[in-house]
Write a structure and sequence with these properties.
alpha/beta; Rossmann fold; two-stranded parallel ribbon; 9 helices; 9 strands; globular; binds NADP nicotinamide-adenine-dinucleotide phosphate
């Protein structure tokens, strides 16, 4: 018994040292602090008021997902749109009164051209759609994360949408050897070609969320990064609430360029305001 506790003590000590060492290495290689969003001393309340007066409408793709759910809640709380439409593959039910004015469009993503009308007449589009290779296989992942998203963006643009906000991923790179990052990078780049008046790509690291669905690898990463963020600040993981807040706040800000990429630290700086 005594030996068991000695071994346990040594193991705990070893893992603590390991976490601190990893934290130190990650901090060293971390992205620099984003000056742009940190120094943004704008008053969000007045930006919200101005935006609200424009009576704009938006749609959300992926509102049943973890980030989409929180984004929807944030949009309802801040009340900046006169109309919110959820576009998804199934009808969602909400009990809270705050959700009663939502419009829902149920579409078949395999035949999106038949549902072009669902994408018409929105000023702003948010996309939090996505699946995983583990859940849908490589082909299924490409179908959802590339084909569904590209077609939706194309229809939205044709339907008069001027702003498109896309949740992508940290490390997205169209030349990556990793399928996930490559597809994310391809989609990020392709949508830019559609020529939205404003196009914002959000590239967060690991999403910190208590997901109901079982995703063992993501669960492990979350536990690890939860431990790590209590030791140091890192740009590897982020609570979904921060991502959602950043997407909404960024909608209110006049961008410097038509297309922009918000890396993890930009999202953190903006989402914590
Ligand atoms: N997990 C991470 O750590 C992480 C990190 C960075 C970026 N991201 C990216 O962030 C985005 C959002 O992630 P999340 O975890 O919030 O998403 P999520 O909880 O997995 O939700 C995904 C959404 O996509 C919809 N969807 C999935 N498969 C579909 C299909 N075959 N047809 C139609 N709709 C489908 C889901 O609808 P149903 O509810 O009907 O299934 C849901 O609304 C994804 O693109 C993801 O790759 C994730």
């Amino acid at each position: 018994m005594k030996q068991f506790f000695t071994t346990l003590g040594k193991a705990t000590g070893f893992f603590t040292v390991l976490i601190v060492a990893i934290a130190a290495v990650l901090s060293y290689f971390d992205d620099p602090e984003p000056v742009k969003y940190k120094s943004m001393a704008q008053d969000m309340k007045s930006l919200e008021e101005n935006f609200k007066q424009q009576n704009k409408s938006c749609f959300i793709l992926g509102a049943s997902g973890e980030t989409g759910k929180v984004l929807l809640k944030e949009l309802l709380e801040r009340n900046i749109f006169s109309k919110i439409t959820l576009i998804g593959r199934r009808q969602l039910t909400f009990e809270d009164k705050a959700y009663e004015n939502l419009v829902q469009e149920v579409v078949d993503f395999e035949k999106l051209d038949d549902y072009a009308a669902a994408f018409q007449g929105h000023d702003v589009g948010y996309c939090c759609l996505g699946t995983t290779k583990a859940k849908a296989g490589a082909e299924g992942f490409i179908r959802v994360d590339r084909d569904y998203i590209l077609k939706s963006a194309e229809l939205a643009k044709a339907g008069g949408c001027s702003q498109f906000h896309l949740q992508s991923s940290r490390g997205a790179d169209k030349n990556s050897n990793f399928l996930y990052l490559k597809i994310k990078g391809q989609v990020d780049a392709k949508i830019e070609e559609f020529g939205f008046d404003r196009y914002s790509v959000y590239r967060p690291g690991v999403l910190l969320v208590d997901r109901q669905e079982s995703r063992p690898t993501e669960w492990l990463a979350r536990k690890f990064f939860n431990g790590l963020t209590s030791v140091c600040s890192t740009s590897m993981a982020i609570p979904i609430e921060v991502v959602a807040k950043a997407m909404v706040s960024n909608t209110l800000i006049q961008p410097e360029q038509k297309a922009e990429i918000l890396e993890h630290k930009d999202i953190t700086a903006l989402g914590k305001k």
